[in-house]
Amino acid sequence: QRLIERCLFFTACSPAGKSINATSGHISSPNFPNNYDTNRICTWNITVPGGKTLKLTFLNFTLVAGENDDCAGAAADSARVFITNVASHRGKPNDFKICGQKLPPPVYSEEHFIQVRFESRTGLVNKGFNAIFQAIDGDSLCPTDMILDETSGSFSSPYNPRNYPFNQTCSWKIIGKQGYRVELTIPDYNLQGCDGAACSCDYMEVQSSFSDQVLPGKLCNTPTHIPVKFYSLHESLRVLFVSDDTSMDYDGFGATYKLLNYSPPSK
């Protein structure tokens, strides 16, 4: 018997809030992909199983053109999306609002619940948004020696490009194969910097590697040149990320890797 995975669509618009208990699903503004109506309020209260983290990913986001994504300076009658109980705002309220047409990065819950509220007002209308949510293992955001053994891939600090939490120690091991070396590319990074190159607050460290750039042993603050590239000394390398207990706002790093065919120099 062939099993078909279902995607649950939660499109009903309820001002009081629709309660959703599921491991994954889909939500959207009224009438999407057609234009939403004015003066609508839709609320989704989404809960995934305990011990899980909820990840919300926007697939489309088209509200009022020309407005900032953080709603700064937005017209009072413009549509917007409010999200509550969001993780990793390091001392800031765990909620924010989104306007405009820039596709937001993924959103993660503080625990296993998140609320999404869409408000259209009396202003211009547009297609609105659609998004998917899923329950993920919280440990996958900050793993301990997670093995990455594909020929290419990517990983990031927790919640990147949103701010990473404090008191984190995360590590990844990129495992190549005989005759190959790992090329690690960090397009950019933004970490708290303390004590110059000592990086005594937050830092990342790429172990068992070398670079053709002049780089300190630990990376923090922001890079002087981008992208930053590292190459493994042998078939594998390890990346360590550490944040201390200081409550600051930094979005961390994202990284990609791939395996390169390596021919040792002839004797």
From TrEMBL:
InterPro entries tied to this protein: CUB_dom, Sperma_CUB_dom_sf
Read off the Pfam families from this record. Answer: CUB
Describe the location of the CUB domain by residue ranges: 16-136, 142-260
Keyword tags: Disulfide bond, Repeat
> Does the keyword Repeat feature in the UniProt annotation?
yes
Q: What is this protein called?
A: CUB domain-containing protein
The record's listing under Gene3D superfamilies reads: Spermadhesin, CUB domain
